[in-house]
Write a structure and sequence with these properties.
The protein is built from 21 helices and 13 strands. It has 538 residues and is an alpha/beta fold. Strands 7-8-9-5-10-13 form a six-stranded mixed β-sheet, sandwiched between helices. The chain has a three-stranded antiparallel β-sheet with strand order 4-3-6, covered by helices on one side. A two-stranded antiparallel ribbon has the order 1-2. GO terms for molecular function: ATP binding; ATP-dependent DNA damage sensor activity; mismatched DNA binding.
Length: 538
């Protein structure tokens, strides 16, 4: 199971509004609802590759301020389908109410926290998984139950039944414990479903503005009518929570004798199957409400945020004071693409890749949560694709270069559609030689920037910046070397990088003088050859 411990600064009390959680994140369960959900209604889904490039799990741990496991699953799904069901004006009003009304906020937190046990993760399985079908021997169960009852009563009148009853007990015990394997999954999920219905009913009765789905009332009533048939699961869950009670043994014996558990189990499954759409509606309603509470808490916690502006899609991306939310005391930057793509130059660790991730993260949170980590942020609705953290696929015998070729080929195909894309690339084609890297890189980047797409790409190749200066706006990050120390200001600057400090940094770090001298001579000779090659013929 994939476990993550939140490494951010935590509050001692997880439920303090605006604070980051300090719990362990069970991503195998958090992501399961997203992985099984139908995504046909989503105009864009973040791929696993994009999530890996952007450290999505770390981002989620920072953004997640939900009170319930259902809220966690819903928020994760919503972020991964970030161009889908955006925040409405009515929901923004509710977010503001939650922020301003402490009494309302406490009420919501108290109710939603009832679904904060790990078992609440299983609720989604009730409507996403196909219910178990009753086996052929299920039809014999009522007969065996009645026969067992008659046999036990007959013990008072006939000694023959002393031999019959043990046989029936053995048969019934086999069926009982065979069914236990199926029952284990539902022992946890169905009691949580009953709890979900009670929470939805309580919240809906308290304030009709909490929910916008007109079908919610019908779904609450539907589950209310059938929850009495789930009593077996509630009782089983309660008894398992206290294994020392003597009642457990007596209850288990009665269930075995009359095969009560399998009979009620498959009847309950039929009712679950008939009400899957109602369970789904309740799940989404509570999950979305908890997500709105989370957004309110997030905005309170970060303080510095703005609402994104999607009104002028042809303008591209314009950001004032944009920052990366996961970096403490992050340096802010401004950028205005004016509809053009961006090429970044700069040395290692100067901030190029971090800035690209900053743009991507703000794109996701802006579209999904209507929240931007900036003073002002304007952008079009886009589909996000990236090629930042590519590695060799040794299992399939693919080199780094072939992995990158495959990823960028997918970008090229998507760029030809009518949808606006934001393509993020870090050091394009760095798995091949210099001449072919620059040549192929120029051709691909020119192609990707067409069709109303935006590209953010970083490179060490100054030649690539010269070749693309008409199609791309050039920016750079640079370091400052003074007193044999290297400092980075992480400020975005216009134009391409004009200084070269790589050899100087080697010198500062104590490389032998002979290496430094030879490197400088070689660099000088290459510069001379390049400048000569660029001179026009006489």
């Amino acid at each position: 199971m994939k476990l993550f411990k939140n490494k951010f600064k935590n509050s001692k009390n997880d439920k303090v509004f605006g604070k980051i959680k300090s719990e362990t994140f069970l991503f195998s369960w958090i992501s399961e609802y997203f992985l099984k959900a139908h995504k046909s209604e989503s105009s864009h889904v973040l791929s696993d590759e994009v999530c890996d490039d952007l450290d999505f799990d770390e981002l989620f741990m920072f953004l997640d301020r939900t009170n319930s496991k259902i809220g966690q699953q819903y928020l994760y799904h919503h972020l991964r389908t970030c161009n889908g069901n955006t925040i409405t004006k009515e929901e923004e009003y509710l977010i503001r109410r939650i922020n301003e009304d402490e009494q309302l906020r406490s009420f919501l937190e108290k109710q939603l926290s009832k679904l904060d046990q790990k078992e609440a993760f299983y609720i989604a399985k009730l409507f996403q998984d196909k219910p178990i079908e009753a086996p052929k021997w299920y039809r014999l169960l009522p007969f065996l139950s009645a026969l067992s009852f008659v046999a036990i009563i007959s013990l008072l009148f006939s000694t023959i039944m002393v031999y019959v009853v043990p046989v029936l007990v053995i048969i019934n015990m086999g069926l009982h414990y065979r069914n236990k394997n199926h029952l284990a999954h539902y022992i946890s999920s169905i009691p949580e479903l009953v709890k979900l219905q009670a929470v939805a009913k309580k919240l809906n009765g308290h304030d009709c503005d909490f929910f916008t789905d007109e079908k919610l009332d019908k779904s609450i009533s539907a589950i209310d009518k059938v929850k009495k048939h789930f009593y077996l699961f509630q009782m089983e869950n309660k008894v398992q929570g206290d294994m020392t009670t003597a009642s457990w043994g007596i209850l288990e014996l009665i269930k075995i004798m009359f095969v009560i558990e399998p009979i009620l189990f498959f009847k309950a499954l039929k009712r679950i199957k008939r009400n899957q759409k109602h369970i789904n509606i309740l799940f989404n309603a509570i999950g979305r409400l908890d997500m709105l509470c989370s957004i309110s808490s997030l905005r309170t916690g970060i303080g510095n945020y703005c609402f994104p502006d999607f009104s002028n899609s042809e303008r591209g991306i314009k950001a004032d004071g944009i920052y990366h939310p996961l970096i403490e005391n992050c340096v802010i930057n401004d950028i205005d693409t004016a509809g053009k793509s961006i090429l970044l130059t700069g040395s290692n660790m100067s901030g190029k890749t971090t800035f690209i991730r900053t743009i991507a993260i703000n794109t996701i949170t802006s579209m999904a949560l209507n929240t931007s980590f900036a003073e002002a942020f304007q952008m079009p609705k886009v589909r996000l694709m990236s090629a930042i953290r590519i590695s060799d696929d040794l299992m399939n015998e693919k080199s780094y270069y072939f992995e990158e070729v495959s990823t960028i080929k997918e970008m090229i195909t998507c760029s030809e559609s009518r949808n606006c894309h934001l393509f993020l690339l870090d050091e394009i084609f760095k798995g091949t030689n210099t001449i072919e890297r620059i040549s192929a890189g120029k051709a691909v980047l020119s192609y990707l920037a067409k069709h109303n797409n935006l590209v953010f790409v970083s490179t060490h190749d100054i030649e690539l910046a010269d070749l693309l200066k008409e199609e791309y706006d050039l920016y750079h990050f640079s370091e400052i070397i003074s007193n044999n120390e290297v400092d980075f200001d992480y400020k975005l600057k216009e134009g391409k990088l004009k200084t070269r400090n790589a050899i100087r940094i080697l010198d500062i770090n104590g490389y032998p003088k002979t290496i430094i001298e030879e490197a400088e001579k070689t660099a000088g000779r290459l510069d001379l050859e390049n400048s000569t090659a660029k001179m026009p013929p006489q």
